[in-house]
Amino acid sequence: MVPAAGRGERLGPGAPKALRELGGVPLLVHAVRALARSRAVGLVVVAAPAEGVAEVIALLDSHGLDGKDIRVVAGGDTRQESVRLGLAAIPAEVGIVLVHDAARPLVPVEVVDAVAAAVRAGAEAVVPAVPLADTVKLVEPQSGGRPEPVLDTPDRSALRAVQTPQGFRRDVLAAAHERALTEPVAVTDDAGLVERFGGRVVVVPGHEEAFKVTRPLDLVLAEAVLARRRASDGF
Ligand SMILES: Nc1ccn([C@@H]2O[C@H](COP(=O)(O)OP(=O)(O)OP(=O)(O)O)[C@@H](O)[C@H]2O)c(=O)n1
Ligand SMILES: C[C@](O)(CO)[C@H](O)COP(=O)(O)O
């Protein structure tokens, strides 16, 4: 399922982020295509901005998406709510769910396949991730741009930057989202929810091109990556 209902505040003014264009094609279409390319994926459920469901249906209809079954539901006010609403639209017989940000348009199919394969092999929750390039500090946040005291410097070799798609046994993911309705937890990804409620999450290799388009510079990088792919293999 593809949460695509965010505003994209950090990207700046304009259309909702999922509908912003990369190489002339909306980010959402890239992301859905990236999933649809995987033989592991049979159905894609998109959580669209609530006011944009009809627009998203028309948009996806107008692009060739490898003959996959695509459904669109209205998303919610938070990413977590959008995922929960999307999950509810997945037929009961589907046992494995991958959750993939519309904001990660360039994820290679190998990453999608690897995540799906790890769930199929028995993991209940799988995240793709890459090692960090920067040193990371734990700080005491301050307001107004004041210097922030450093509390700790975690060992970078054991840290990973986590991407999507994140893959789950459907019952595990659904149970975590249901439980979060009555026991809210502040996490920023689906695997975080599973972890908080005692689930076991494992990491498989991600890919540097699976980065999230969050700020304007990310879009510049995404355009460059796409141009390189188009030049090299007619992508
Ligand atoms: N209410 C929301 C918020 C986010 N998302 C989705 O979750 C993914 C990751 O979120 P993020 O990159 O933070 O997107 P935005 O929330 O749009 O960005 P921002 O925080 O800058 O507004 C995106 O595909 C986004 O569309 C969603 O489906 N519903
Ligand atoms: C799910 C995610 O992409 C994993 O890195 C990330 O946590 C989303 O964060 P955002 O602040 O909602 O973009």
Outline:
The chain is of the alpha/beta class. The chain has helices at residues 27-36, 53-61, 79-88, 109-120, 170-182, 190-196, 216-233; strands at 2-3, 21-22, 25-26, 43-48, 69-74, 96-99, 125-131, 138-139, 150-152, 160-162, 166-169, 201-205.
Task: Give the topology, please.
Elements: E1 2-3, E2 21-22, E3 25-26, H1 27-36, E4 43-48, H2 53-61, E5 69-74, H3 79-88, E6 96-99, H4 109-120, E7 125-131, E8 138-139, E9 150-152, E10 160-162, E11 166-169, H5 170-182, H6 190-196, E12 201-205, H7 216-233
Helix pairs in contact: 5-6
The structure holds cytidine-5'-triphosphate and the ligand C[C@](O)(CO)[C@H](O)COP(=O)(O)O.
The site of ligand LQXTBERG has 9 residues, from loops.
Properties at a glance:
single chain; about 240 residues; alpha/beta; three-stranded parallel sheet; 7 helices; 12 strands; about 35% helix; binds cytidine-5'-triphosphate
Q: Name the CATH architecture.
A: Alpha-Beta Complex
Rg from Cα: 18 Å
* SSE-based structural type: alpha/beta
Q: Gap between N and C termini, in Å?
A: 23 Å
Mean pLDDT: 96
The count of strands amounts to: 12
Characterization of the model:
- The protein is an alpha/beta fold and 235 residues long.
- The protein has one domain (2-233): Spore Coat Polysaccharide Biosynthesis Protein SpsA, Chain A (Alpha-Beta Complex).
- Helices cover 34% and strands 20% of the residues.
- The protein has seven helices and twelve strands.
- Strands 6, 7, 10, 11 and 12 form a five-stranded mixed β-sheet that branches. It has a three-stranded parallel β-sheet with strand order 1-4-5, with helices on both faces.
- Helix 5 packs across helix 6.
- The chain starts with a strand and ends with a helix.
- The model has no long low-confidence stretch (mean pLDDT 96).
- Bound molecules: cytidine-5'-triphosphate and ligand LQXTBERG.
- Ligand LQXTBERG is lined by residues 79, 101, 162-164, 188-189, 212, 214.
- Cytidine-5'-triphosphate is lined by residues 3-10, 17-18, 47, 75-79, 82, 101-103, 212, 214.
